[in-house]
């Protein structure tokens, strides 16, 4: 069976930017729901897929997964992967990029404010449910991009370094329709060490 990551913090530890009830429902119901649907679909139709890494299955979907379950595996599988990265992108403490991380931000965006503005604009411009990502391409170039539903830029050849969930279930209880306020709060609490770690393991 596929699995999801353990929540890397206690729900109450991130209450400055996400309320405890939202974290509990999000991790235990939404994230878990995608995982359960993925596992049931694979178990009932093609259990041999469990021997592979989930991301490998998703990026090689047409050749590995039977056509009749490709859509279910794609949608639920990427929602599992995206939520894993979302939880890892967050820090319980207010945080600021290291000098090494900041140099990358300055190189590709100009400064931290411009970078945050790009994330906010992409998040606000995404109609309906989706995700906003910081990605790195094969040449090491960083970009901000948004996707719909469960889509992930890895399918376009770019590796996500951080992501923010912009489905309404991620913020509605506390922020209602104010997605911009949710984004502004989350941007103060990013796990920059993890972001840089992913960059370094991608760009070798
Ligand atoms: Mn979500």
By DSSP (H or I, 4+ residues per run), the number of helices equals 9
Strand order of the largest sheet: 2-1-3
Proportion in β-strands: 5-15%
Oligomer: single chain
Instruction: Name the shape in a single word.
Output: globular
N-to-C span: 31 Å
Small-molecule components bound: manganese (II) ion
Major sheet: size, sense and barrel closure?
3 strands, antiparallel
Low-confidence stretches: none
Describe this structure in words.
- By secondary structure, the protein is mainly alpha-helical.
- 52% of the residues lie in helices and 10% in strands.
- It is built from 9 helices and 3 strands.
- The chain has helices spanning 20-45, 54-59, 61-64, 67-89, 99-109, 112-125, 172-175, 179-186, 192-202; strands spanning 130-136, 142-148, 159-165.
- It has a 3-stranded antiparallel β-sheet with strand order 2-1-3.
- The longest helix is centred in the N-terminal third of the chain and has 26 residues, at 20-45.
- The chain is globular.
- The two termini are 31 Å apart.
- Bound molecules: manganese (II) ion (MN).
Structural key phrases:
204 residues, mainly alpha, binds manganese (II) ion, single chain, 3-stranded antiparallel beta sheet
Question: How does the SSE layout of this entry go?
Answer:
Elements: H1 20-45, H2 54-59, H3 61-64, H4 67-89, H5 99-109, H6 112-125, E1 130-136, E2 142-148, E3 159-165, H7 172-175, H8 179-186, H9 192-202
Antiparallel strand pairs: 1-2, 1-3
Helix pairs in contact: 1-4, 6-8
The structure holds manganese (II) ion.
Manganese (II) ion (MN) binds at residues 26, 30, 83, 165, 167, 169-170.
């Amino acid at each position: 069976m596929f699995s999801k990551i353990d929540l890397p913090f206690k729900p109450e530890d991130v209450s400055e930017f996400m309320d405890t009830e939202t974290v509990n429902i999000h991790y235990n119901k939404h994230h878990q729901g995608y995982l359960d649907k993925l596992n049931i679909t694979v178990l009932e139709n093609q259990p041999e897929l469990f021997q592979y890494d989930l991301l490998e299955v998703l990026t090689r979907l047409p050749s590995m997964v039977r056509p009749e379950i490709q859509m279910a595996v794609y949608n639920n599988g990427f929602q599992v992967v995206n939520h894993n990265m979302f939880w890892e992108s967050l820090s319980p403490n207010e945080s600021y990029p290291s000098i090494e991380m900041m140099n990358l931000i300055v190189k590709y965006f100009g400064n931290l404010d411009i970078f945050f503005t790009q994330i906010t604009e992409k998040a606000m411009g995404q109609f309906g449910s989706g995700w906003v990502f910081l990605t790195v391409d094969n040449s090491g170039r960083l970009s901000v991009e948004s996707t719909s539903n469960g889509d992930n830029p890895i399918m376009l050849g770019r590796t996500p370094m951080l992501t923010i969930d912009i489905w309404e279930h991620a913020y509605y209880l506390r922020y209602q329709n104010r997605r911009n306020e949710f984004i502004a709060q989350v941007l103060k609490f990013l796990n920059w060490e993890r972001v840089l770690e992913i960059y370094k393991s991608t760009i070798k």
